[in-house]
Sequence to fold (312 residues):
Amino acid sequence: MLGEFQGSQKVPSTVKLSSFCSVRMGWVGKACIKDSWTRLQAGQGYGNTLNCVFTVYRNETVAGFFKGMSFPLASIAVYSSVVFGVFSNTQRFICQHRYGDSNHASAVSDLVVASMVAGFVSVGIGCPVDLVKIRLQMQTQPFIQATNGLVSKLNTTAYRGPVHCISSILRKEGLAGIYRGAGAMVLRDVPGYCLYFIPYTFLCEWFTSDGCRSPSPSSVWIAGGIAGAISWGTATPMDVVKSRLQADGVHLNKYKGVIDCISQSYHNEGLKVFFRSMTINAVRGFPMSAAMFLGYELSLKTIRGVQADINP
Fold:
């Protein structure tokens, strides 16, 4: 069960604080990779990851890799604490009502339900954050506009920052505009979190020696990394669709919805487009998730130890 590393009595109120600590460990090196990954998925003219990195650096310097990161950095702790908290507490709620003990070992079906609930909840917070980030990153990408039969390339800035981006979207598209791409995000995150928490749980059990009450820090790190690589790698096809839907609308509206985006992308670029950035997804998923799970477990252990000293 998630949170068993500490080997002590559960204290649900510590889940969010420990998640806050863990996400800072997992987010530090993510910004540059995330920017390149988004541009590969939704942008045009990048042959591969290295070409994308060099092009962004040449045109926008180092600052280009951190474009649109202020809003995610301000909200990622809340997002991840909610996701980890919802999964952990849903898992305990199911075990309490099914087995009469919230610390009872979870069956696969219990883990699936808890992961799906976490996936649905994550969309409510994550969709607006991703939308603003992607819009800010993609606003300087050239697009083709037809004017009087002539095709010209424009490279204009549509938003001055996160607040201006949100207000512009609300003014032009309404509240529904803030959740553009939510359908694709549900299709990404619900199975994605199943392939995130379930492998982590089973790998931790597998790595834990007989007679040990909880996995070691190294086991947590490896299990978390493998789970992250699996989850982000398999989520790539729907992540491409989500990124394209959310990038759409900066200057033009190209897609009518998830099905239309899939159809147009396949027709114009073939099946390979849905696996664009899969390698970088899996590579960045390992260290980021390893740090997040280890940070979660270690911070949870520390917080519970402090609470035990205060309230023996």
Notes: The chain has two domains: 12-142, 180-304. The longest strand covers residues 143-147. Residues 146 and 152 are 7 Å apart (CA to CA).
